[in-house]
Amino acid sequence: MIVAQIMEKMIAFSNGDIHDIDHLIRVWTYAKTIGELESLDQQTQEVLEIAAITHDIACPLCREKYGNTNGRHQETEGALMVRDFLTGTGMTERQVDRVSFLVGHHHTLTGIDGMDHQILVEADYIANAAENGYSKENITNFMAGIMKTQSGKRLLAAVSGLWSTFSGFGR
Ligand SMILES: [Fe+2]
Predict the structure, then answer these.
(1) pLDDT for the residue 169
(2) What is the model's pLDDT at position 46?
(3) Which residues contact 144 (CB under 8 A, 6 or more apart)?
(4) How many whole angstroms from 162 Cα to the centroid of ligand 1?
(5) Which sign does the torsion angle of CA 108, 112, 118, 120 carry?
(6) Through-space distance between the first and last CA atoms of the chain, rounded to whole angstroms
(7) Which residues of 62-80 are buried (b: 16+ CB within 10 A; e: fewer)?
């Protein structure tokens, strides 16, 4: 229930920016799917899904303030903004802290800290690879170097139309 409430709130926050809304829905769908296929415990799954929904919360602000959504400031601004955004949603302080950490590190590929962080990074990449048409080389490198979950690898291969290139994921 809390995930649905936060989804509604985030769509309202995005206020007609269909690019942002489509992206967050896609990242949430991939994160939810990978988390469930990887059998996360319920607490971790919930934090992951809420982080996926809110991860790009600072994009509108950064477009305005910096003229782009690149780099560290999107993470830093997002980690702060998401705390306000989640106030009054019934989440515990610990959950809010973790979501804030994840939003603040969703582009940070070094020192990935926990399955929620790992899966958020994987889900965002899968969505971005399709949206931006990443090259086969970029996808192959990311899959080999960064991805850890078998379900994330299968989804990335399928979404990017490279299923026949990769094999041995098992099932
Ligand atoms: Fe994203």
Answers:
(1) 61
(2) 98
(3) none
(4) 22
(5) negative
(6) 30
(7) beeeeeebeeeebbebbbe
Residue with the two structure tokens 């990335």? 156
Q: How far does the centroid of ligand 1 lie from the alpha carbon of residue 1, in Å?
A: 23
**In angstroms, what is the span from residue 27 Cα to ligand 1's centroid?**
7
- For residue 10, how far is its CA from the centre of ligand 1 (angstroms)? 14
Determine the Cα–Cα distance for residues 25 and 43; give it in Å rounded to an integer: 20
Residue whose tokens read 């094999």: 167
- Ligand 1 center to 88 CA (angstroms): 24
Report which residue type is found at 90. G
CA of 150 from ligand 1 middle (Å) equals 21
Q: Contact at 8 Å (CB) between 161 and 128?
A: no
Q: How far apart are CA 55 and CA 32, in angstroms?
A: 14
| Ranges of the chain whose pLDDT falls below 70 | 167-171
